[in-house]
């Protein structure tokens, strides 16, 4: 079967309130779920939907992105004719880097024009989910829509910041507002848009000609009257991960086995850059419960209700509770760590006592020694 | 073609008869080990860390799974433009084809492959052994001594010596005598089946040996003794460290259990010498609130809700609430039902153990084996797993 969708992961001006976690990296490469980076979810969903050509519009702090994505091989995106394209800003003047996404799409218009694919899916990196875009396309065609926005209907309050959407009885989008808007709706936008490529190129050119350069705010918000914009309801799990509180809570949600299964297996697996880590070793006196643990760890102490990334060492007598310890972290003998997020290579020396609060976890920046 | 100083020929056709049901559809080098690996990963990783970029892998017995696993050698950095990994099965020639008759004959049949690279030296290794070794140090030793062949040697227990080819060496590591599997060994320096030959010399011997109708065309039994007889220069390269031939169910189980020691003799956590393998794509392992995991090695994608003690769990194993796994090796994607108990066992890939089933006993010395994709019910019926 031949596929017709071109994928775009749009990292331009992604709303990011992750503080120290994005000090040296872009939001797309924030580690998540014990071995992944945020971008893996959108990228894997695209690949599992049969999309074999994906452009990542890099914006700022993208060294970690280049390192993570490499040739795209780990997502099976290293092909002769298609595959992965990383497109950093193409500008003469550094001031232009801060212009909106439509400007950057325009700069890279050759990339779109060269492709023979009819449809385009644009996604962000901070919407953690597992979704089949073929189904979104089928819905798009059924509705005879110009643009389809993937939405999520929430039961409770939404963690993280997302735009609010109002749909009419037919599923047509009647209003979109920023997260701070007054619109009362329990439906939020997942910032995933599907449309024909020609329409996108039209929107890019007409908007820029009018001095507007933001895809959602300018090209879509203002045309809800003229264009048939529909909302596709995503039924699966969604984590809007763009604030520290939502990062922490969505990490903790993975400790629910149903969420773990849904996010990592359905409808397809999630891929990431491969590391040759050995399996994890549990020592004689270790106690591990209710946790998610990656390979390459050495657990000699107690780990409860926590997310442990690759290559972490928890020494004898150490206790890690309700925390997230990223790659190559070290928790020394007898230390106690609770409600904390430890970035990569953080070293907690022996005998320390670190406690954050559930609502505002303690945060240690990369390579910090405590 | 770019000339290579040394290329490796990796013998991977082993049938592994004594591994019983575990090698029914699988060549021995493809047998699982250590929660994540297959046995052949160790020799291939050794090649990668020793700067060897050209490896011929000689396959024969049940090659399907092994070929699929090796692919084009990318996990071991062997997808190269010049050289890289080449799988060398026996093939049909103009006058008909023959199986590899022995280890030496396998190399003989692939002389054309070796000649393409015109190497000075050829490293002959086997995909059946678990060890970490820098072949480059051995090559330097070989060049310094100017030997025709250098054989890696390991001191083994005297009572085990008769299982191996044993060597007598002088003060300068020159081999003065070599006996293949002697009844009454007079030395305990065992050959590890790791040889570096000066290619021109080996080539001559392979040709002589091929013409000899009485030969079994084996390195240990024929080529090395013939080189001794002709007064060639044979050297031993002393190796210290972990080396294991996992030829039997017991030794495979033991080698896995070795990883659980307080200070394991084989360090898989050395970042300078990572063991490369095909990484399965699985999320991190999930341990539930009821789980108890002690003294074990557990891989990604496992869901553990029961008790695991002194065991090795490969990726994707599900152990439900109330299950007990003790002193066992559980291969990938095994499902263990509620309250099932497994003691001193090896459970083959994809097997399903029904809730309440009991496999093995904690007291018995013998190791119980459940074959690949078998369904074990709680009244000890063994069925084939229905394909899903």
From TrEMBL, chain A:
Record protein name field: Glucose-1-phosphate adenylyltransferase subunit GlgD
GO biological process: glycogen biosynthetic process
Nucleus is among the record's keywords: no
Pfam families reported for this sequence: Hexapep_GlmU, NTP_transferase
Family: Belongs to the bacterial/plant glucose-1-phosphate adenylyltransferase family.
UniProt cross-references to PANTHER family, sorted A to Z: GLUCOSE-1-PHOSPHATE ADENYLYLTRANSFERASE-RELATED, GLYCOGEN BIOSYNTHESIS PROTEIN GLGD
Organism taxonomic ancestry: Bacteria, Bacillati, Bacillota, Bacilli, Bacillales
Source domain of life: Bacteria
CDD domains reported for this sequence: ADP_Glucose_PP (cd02508), LbH_G1P_AT_C (cd04651)
Keywords, sorted A to Z: Glycogen biosynthesis, Nucleotidyltransferase, Transferase
Source species: Paenibacillus agaridevorans
GO MF annotations in UniProt: glucose-1-phosphate adenylyltransferase activity
Domain Nucleotidyl transferase: 18-210
Domain Glucose-1-phosphate adenylyltransferase/Bifunctional protein GlmU-like C-terminal hexapeptide, residue spans: 286-354
Gene3D superfamilies associated with the record: Hexapeptide repeat proteins (2.160.10.10), Spore Coat Polysaccharide Biosynthesis Protein SpsA, Chain A (3.90.550.10)
Keyword Ribosomal protein: no
Automatic annotation (TrEMBL), chain B:
Domain Nucleotidyl transferase: residue ranges: 8-261
EC assignment: 2.7.7.27
InterPro entries referenced in this protein's UniProt entry, alphabetically: ADP-Glc_PPase, ADP_Glu_pyroP_CS, GlgC_bac, GlmU/GlgC-like_hexapep, NTP_transferase_dom, Nucleotide-diphossugar_trans, Trimer_LpxA-like_sf
Pfam family, one: NTP_transferase
Annotated alpha-D-glucose 1-phosphate binding sites: 100, 165, 180-181, 191
Molecular function as annotated in GO: ATP binding; glucose-1-phosphate adenylyltransferase activity
SUPFAM superfamilies: Nucleotide-diphospho-sugar transferases, Trimeric LpxA-like enzymes
Biological pathway: Glycan biosynthesis; glycogen biosynthesis
Cited Gene3D superfamilies: Hexapeptide repeat proteins (2.160.10.10), Spore Coat Polysaccharide Biosynthesis Protein SpsA, Chain A (3.90.550.10)
Residue span, Glucose-1-phosphate adenylyltransferase/Bifunctional protein GlmU-like C-terminal hexapeptide domain: 286-365
UniProt entry keywords in alphabetical sequence: ATP-binding, Carbohydrate metabolism, Glycogen biosynthesis, Glycogen metabolism, Nucleotide-binding, Nucleotidyltransferase, Transferase
Site (Could play a key role in the communication between the regulatory and the substrate sites): 60, 99
Alphabetized CDD domains for the sequence: ADP_Glucose_PP (cd02508), LbH_G1P_AT_C (cd04651)
Catalytic activity: alpha-D-glucose 1-phosphate + ATP + H(+) = ADP-alpha-D-glucose + diphosphate
Swiss-Prot/TrEMBL GO biological process terms: glycogen biosynthetic process
Subunit structure: Homotetramer.
PANTHER family, per database record: GLUCOSE-1-PHOSPHATE ADENYLYLTRANSFERASE (PTHR43523:SF2), GLUCOSE-1-PHOSPHATE ADENYLYLTRANSFERASE-RELATED (PTHR43523)
HAMAP family in the cross-refs: GlgC
Function field: Involved in the biosynthesis of ADP-glucose, a building block required for the elongation reactions to produce glycogen. Catalyzes the reaction between ATP and alpha-D-glucose 1-phosphate (G1P) to produce pyrophosphate and ADP-Glc.
Family indicated by similarity: Belongs to the bacterial/plant glucose-1-phosphate adenylyltransferase family.
Protein name in UniProt: Glucose-1-phosphate adenylyltransferase
Species in which this protein is naturally found: Paenibacillus agaridevorans
